[in-house]
Amino acid sequence: MELTAKERMAIERHGMAEQPPDLRNRNFEEVPYGYTPEEAVAEAQRCLSCKKMQCISGCPVEVPIPEFIALVAEEKFAEAARLIKTKNVLPAICGRVCPQESQCEGVCIRGKKDITKAVAIGNLERFVADYERENNLMEVPEIKDKNGFKVAVIGSGPSGLTVAGDLIKLGYEVTIYEAFHRGGGVLVYGIPEFRMPKRIVEAEIRALEDLGVKIYYNSVIGRLHKVDDLFKTLGFNAVYIGVGAGLPIFLDIPGKNLNGVFSANEYLTRSNLMKSYLFPKYRTPMIIGKKVAVLGGGNVAMDSARTAIRLGAEKVTIVYRRAREQMPARAAEVHHAEQEKIEFRLLSSPVEIYGNEEGWATGMKCQRYELGEPDESGRQRPVPIKDSFFEFDCDQVLMSIGGQANPLITSTTPDMKINKWGYIETDDWGRTNKEFVYAGGDIVTGAATVISAMGAGRRAAKAIHEDLMKETDETLQPPGGETEEGDEEK
Amino acid sequence: MYELIEKAEIFNVHKMVIKAPEIAHSIQAGQFVIIMGNEYSERIPITVSDWNTDTGAITLYVLELGISTLELARMKVGDSLYVVTGPLGIPSEIKKYGTVALGGGCYGIGGIYPIAKACKEAGNKVISIIEARYSFMFYHEKELHAVSDQVLYATSDGSKGKKGKVEDVIREMLEKGVKIDQAFFIGCTQMLERCSEATRPYAIPTKVALNSIMLDGTGMCGACRVSVGGETKFACVDGPEFDGHKVDWKELNRRRSAYTEQESVIYQSYSHECMAEKKLRGEL
Lengths: 490, 284
Ligand SMILES: Cc1cc2nc3c(=O)[nH]c(=O)nc-3n(C[C@H](O)[C@H](O)[C@H](O)COP(=O)(O)OP(=O)(O)OC[C@H]3O[C@@H](n4cnc5c(N)ncnc54)[C@H](O)[C@@H]3O)c2cc1C
Ligand SMILES: Cc1cc2nc3c(=O)[nH]c(=O)nc-3n(C[C@H](O)[C@H](O)[C@H](O)COP(=O)(O)OP(=O)(O)OC[C@H]3O[C@@H](n4cnc5c(N)ncnc54)[C@H](O)[C@@H]3O)c2cc1C
Ligand code: SF4
Ligand code: FES
Hints:
heterodimer, A: 490 residues, alpha/beta, Fumarate Reductase Iron-sulfur Protein, Chain B, domain 2, FAD/NAD(P)-binding domain, five-stranded parallel β-sheet, 18 helices, 13 strands, globular, disordered C terminus, B: 284 residues, Elongation Factor Tu (Ef-tu), domain 3, Rossmann fold, 2 domains, seven-stranded mixed β-sheet, six-stranded antiparallel β-sheet, 15 strands, binds flavin-adenine dinucleotide, binds iron/sulfur cluster, binds FE2/S2 (inorganic) cluster
């Protein structure tokens, strides 16, 4: 029952069934329900198995896309998931959050004329990973004999989890130190439940623990232990730093410290990590704005705006300096936000936040912008239009205009090289200038994507393995002889 | 983990001694921890008043105010806290200043102890000044005496030491010409502000441990931001100690009261829960 190219071409793209907008804007359940196996097979049949396989080169970690899709078409779902995992260890997550339209699907031949007709690679990736997990078909990977080396991973975001997973399989003893009381990084404290169900992240973390990865929560490295202490006192042979980007930026305008003005990080952390959408059962309070203004046009802005709607805001307005096409958010998120009746004020930027006598935000004054000459990145630069202002009422302002590097680790590791923005400098494989110290993810690149953080973790794991193995060859003695069990304080 | 190994109540302040050996090893004077009683709790910052590297215990003094501190106060010896994260914040700058005056009110009575101790060890003359409403509300006194050259008291009713507050004691000292080279204050915002005003005319370098609302404590959220000398600072990573003569107190007070409504809702719902429980058990 091999289909001809023509028959394949005739199949329309299968969207995922979703919660309708006026239902989902009052709950935190995931928006798309997922494919049925029949839908997945039918969608997989749309793939033409092109010789050139453009899609693979569009994927930052080169998932063998046509091959896994062929397995889906044969209903070999778990096999497909396993094949993806040879390149991408977190497919259930990436299938949900990758900006597919600018990666794999963006170069898919079937989407050449109309991107919305590309093979739904992300949906298929999500489906097979969910299928494997929900049917308990996750295979326990083969683990090499312990090689005696100990590696510390700082941060449990996607890059840290990837390093841990790769190294535990190679026989390393791996310990993750995480500042928060839950693992997953941005996946748990930033990206909301309705987009990234926490049980999926929890399942990934449990799987790592089952393989023997130790996770110490509530451990802020730089304060509890310095990087050098991890080697000297705690006997680690290598350290991977995957602490994410961290610090929020507040637009420096009058009113930025008024009550009701939040960083998106704070707002989302309260809601996601601390579950204040379930207040008062969960004790962390949240201010519920009636008219909410969200500054920015990325995924963080969309997540903040859509959280505000779900928490009961009457009106949510996104204010963004550039044009719609220039918004860095995933296309699906912008689309969902529009469906949820979030208003967009494009080509506008706030110049002042107004407050009342008690110091609460009451409104905002914005300047209008127009598109001018292209800048270095090729995007047309937004330029302010002189004397063109408008005002609107808002009692809550959520700033999601980007971040800065968190200096907690770098300032307590002064001999580690950082660039002028405070991000850690590494070679292509994540090696820092400090011997046996590696870094990757947002703390190296600045705010980026889950898949790029994962890719960085993969490369660093390879480098760590290579460097430590070289070490054994050179010294010709098994490492770890002096550090006995119970050496650690915990 | 984080087992409560000793507990005592001094009026509305609860002494909580918690097993946290790694923190006990790395903490320095002036730092704090963020704690959660159980998995539903809020993350709240609490100053570490004492620690013992041998037993691996840290001592906190928690002033019962709202739901989070109330739930902590209800915990029993043997229970474990869900989260104790730390040490957080930049340690106090300890060096030989000459004469150091430390003022503490409510939880700050415990809070100033490690700074007093470190200052003493650094060869300073240490004057500790503590305030409370009534004489029976003081605590951690024996320890404080051991590391201070002088301990001065202030009470609202005059039942111990001077009738008044720390600021009154400081002002009197300064008027008398006592030379103070460095001042540290820990306590409620009003006390910090008033004490800073007392030292301002004499241009005494004054450090205050600010208590803005915190969430992560690692610089990631900006909830704790304060304006100091016109600049925005994150109290959890740039502080908690700042120059008391440069803090925008009005903004701090305003931002600290942001959740008053929710705090009272939850507090009341808690009392209802408890009433219902008691009724069920036939105690009411
Ligand atoms: C709201 C939001 C939405 C996003 N949406 C998308 C999306 O749709 N698609 C996409 O591809 N990307 C998205 N991103 C970006 C993506 O999440 C990040 O690029 C990615 O998570 C970076 O991974 P990481 O491992 O480098 O760090 P993080 O995920 O940031 O994890 C770092 C971890 O380190 C911990 N840590 C920090 N400091 C310390 C310390 N001193 N000691 C111990 N632990 C520490 C942190 O608590 C955290 O758990 C989004 C980001 C946000 C904030
Ligand atoms: C660096 C620092 C050190 C502190 N040290 C101590 C200490 O040693 N002992 C002590 O008893 N208290 C200390 N506090 C204050 C303590 O954190 C608050 O009293 C506590 O969070 C109140 O919580 P609640 O739910 O019981 O009261 P609520 O009724 O919720 O709040 C009472 C007041 O406490 C403040 N508050 C509420 N939530 C927070 C929060 N997440 N972070 C900070 N403040 C908050 C608000 O201003 C509020 O008006 C410290 C605060 C900071 C910032
Ligand atoms: S990892 Fe991302 S880019 Fe790669 S195939 Fe999957 S969805 Fe596409
Ligand atoms: S508490 Fe979040 S930045 Fe200070």
